[in-house]
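pasting for ref
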Amino acid sequence: MRLLLTGRNVDITPPLRQQVTRQIGRLERVLQDSAISAQVVLSRERHRHLTDIALHARGDNVLTGAGVATTWPLSIKDAVGKIEQQAKRVKDRWAARKRRVPGPRRALASLEAAPPAAVAVEAPPDVPQVVRTRYAIRTMSLDEAAARLTAGDEPFVLFRDRVAGKVMMVFRRKDGQLGFLEPQA
C-alpha cells in the first residue's frame, strides 16, 4: 500500500512515521490487502494534535477518519479506530455481495437447506427455467388431502397414503375438478 504522509506545522520524525505505518498496517490486515493507498495529514494547533486519514480501498471506497488528542499516538489511534469501523462495514458488504452470487456448490447447498419456498435454478436462455421447490410430505388419507386442497390456495397436495404407504398427489385440474396421481407398482 502506498502511504503519503504530510505534516502541517509538524516535523515528521522517524518514530512518528513508524507509529503511523504501524497503525495503518492494522487497517491493511482488516481489509485483507484491499487497501490501495493512504493519505495521512498530521497537524498541530497549540496543544491539540490532529490526524486526518483518507484510505483508498478497492471498489472506489474512500474511508476517512479524523483524530484529535493531546498526544500523537492517541490522535493516530483515534483516527485509525474510526476508519477501522468503516472498513468492517465495507468488508461486511463485500462478503454479503459474495454470498448473493452462489457458485455451483453453494447453490446446491442452499437448495438443500432452503425452506419450503421456490428456488430458481439458472438455465441457458433457450431452455425454460426450472424452479425447484422443497415440500414436506405428510401422512394422510385421500379424503384429508382433497379437503386440504379445496380449503387452501395450494395447486397440489403431495402426501403419503396411510393405508398403502405410497406417496401420492392430489391436484387441481384446469376444468376445476380434482385430479389424483398414484405411482405404478
